[in-house]
Design goal:
Blueprint: H1 12-16, H2 19-31, H3 49-54, H4 56-69, E1 78-83, E2 89-94, H5 97-114, H6 131-143, E3 148-153, H7 157-160, H8 163-173, H9 177-195, H10 205-221, H11 260-287, H12 290-313, H13 329-346, E4 350-354, E5 357-362, H14 365-381, E6 392-395, E7 400-402, E8 405-407, H15 423-450
Antiparallel strand pairs: 1-2, 3-5, 3-6, 4-5, 7-8
Helix pairs in contact: 2-5, 4-11, 8-9, 10-12, 11-12
């Protein structure tokens, strides 16, 4: 039974490529970059927001033509690593400006399609809810007597997303192969950038790094392919039984062993759409300088070879990851965990999920431990696992850390003099507290008067 109902409205790609939608996407991309950084906001193609804006109408027209005709090819993002508050580092993808606009345009159309279907236990990157709402939900469950918490998060969540399962979930809702192929290309480009290790850095080191990556990818294109393995059965892989995700998806080609001749033919077939896209952006690259044109050529070569490798890899282990930094990644991450939300809430568990941070509030320690085991099993179905270092079962009264906030039970009972048994005692306690407050206020006024 499908988890998401099929969309039956007007074609989505036509709406995505509409002038109004793409213009709104550009405005949001532009507003997300501070004015002082717009001259240093380049992605892997070294085109900054100011470069793009200098020829804006032509650039947007070319992007629209590429999206409509199917020759659009995203560039592998530039990966940078930033420290996390909880320790370690997080890889952030820096996309080319044109790829940021295209992703935002798709996100603006897909968000309203999936948003009404998500459950109210999900709070991360959702419309009209956020961190305060998630924290308040946990506190409300505690006030209702659910005073034990199974608290955990998902280990390396964005890097562990199984792209095949994700595409299967998307296909339940969206039956437009060109749009699905577009999303798959973004996922593959991100997996390529993440999988080759190390952040791409700014020029001139960036140019050399790109040339090395392009050469390595081209050499690998003619190496022996990975061994073929049979596709997973519908029983063991319930989220990815869609026919188009098996070998030969959307006519991209059936993976098979290839020698030098086969590798050259495959590279040439992949080069045609990639070079068609390069033809669109060539005038812009020439305008911004020879060095950037060389870098753009190195990227194009890497994309061609990497596309070949990714096609052959579909016969083996599924690609993983949805790089953080793109406008579409948070929505895809929530789509991927929607089956998990359904599974836990169908068991009557009080789940609060903020992206990959999970809390289940329970009435007893035994119930919380059972909930934790259920979470482990359901995540394994999605090829995910818990971060055991951050997994614990605890009493709410002992304090609970959630989304960077410390939660504690609300104080109840008399606050002015514990154990008062009559209104006379309560009145004396109130008078004593009032006298102390007046004395404190008077002392503060006296201190101010004594200052020169």
């Amino acid at each position: 039974m499908p988890i998401f109902p099929r969309y039956a409205g007007p074609p989505l790609l036509d709406q995505i490529c509409g002038v109004e939608n793409l213009t709104l996407a550009w405005r949001r991309v532009r507003s997300n970059i501070q004015v002082a950084r717009r001259g240093r906001s380049a992605g892997p193609d070294l085109v900054t927001l100011r470069d793009f804006e200098a020829d804006w109408s032509a650039q947007m027209g070319r992007l629209t033509d590429e999206l409509r005709s199917g020759v659009y090819r995203p560039l592998p993002p530039r990966m940078v690593r930033i420290p996390k508050a909880s320790g370690g580092e997080r890889a952030i993808a820096i996309l080319a400006i044109r790829d940021r606009v295209a992703q935002r345009a798709v996100q603006q159309l897909l968000q309203p399609l999936f948003e009404p279907l998500f459950l109210d236990c999900s709070y991360g990157c959702r419309l009209h809810v956020g961190t305060p709402d998630a924290v308040a939900r946990v506190a409300r469950y505690a006030e209702q007597g659910l005073t034990w918490a199974a608290d955990t998060d998902i280990a390396s969540y964005f890097d562990s997303i199984d792209q095949r399962i994700l595409m299967g979930l998307l296909r339940q809702r969206i039956d437009e192969p060109p749009l699905l192929q577009l999303i798959a290309q973004w996922l593959q480009a991100g997996a390529l950038a993440e999988g080759e290790g190390g952040a791409l850095v700014d020029p001139p080191v960036g140019a050399a790094a790109l040339l090395r990556r392009g050469g390595a990818a081209l050499r690998s294109a003619f190496a022996a392919p990975p061994p073929l393995v049979p596709p997973m059965s519908a029983v063991s892989d319930p989220y990815a039984a869609a026919a188009w995700e098996q070998p030969d998806p959307l006519g991209w080609g059936v993976p098979r062993p290839m020698g030098l001749q086969g590798g050259l033919l495959a590279a040439l077939s992949l080069a045609q759409p990639a070079m068609e896209g390069a033809r669109f952006i060539a005038p812009h690259l020439r305008r911004i300088g020879t060095q950037r044109l060389m870098v753009g050529g190195a990227i194009a070569a890497g994309v061609i070879a990497a596309s070949e490798l990714l096609l052959r890899a579909q016969a083996g282990a599924a690609a993983r990851g949805a790089p953080q930094g793109g406008a579409l990644s948070p929505l895809l991450a929530n789509i991927y965990l929607h089956p998990f939300d359904l599974a836990l809430t169908s068991h009557g568990l009080r789940l609060v999920r903020f992206m990959d941070d999970l809390v289940v509030m329970c009435a007893s320690r035994e119930e919380a431990e059972r909930a934790l085991e259920l979470m482990r099993r359901q995540l394994l179905t999605l090829r995910l696992r818990l971060n055991e270092e951050k997994t614990r079962v605890s009493a709410y009264a002992d304090g609970l850390e959630f989304l960077g906030q410390s939660l504690a039970p609300t104080r109840t009972g008399p606050r002015l003099g514990a154990g008062v048994a009559s209104f006379e005692e309560a009145e004396r306690a109130l008078r004593k507290a009032a006298a102390q407050a007046r004395a404190g206020a008077q002392a503060a006024r006296d201190k101010l008067r004594r200052k020169p």
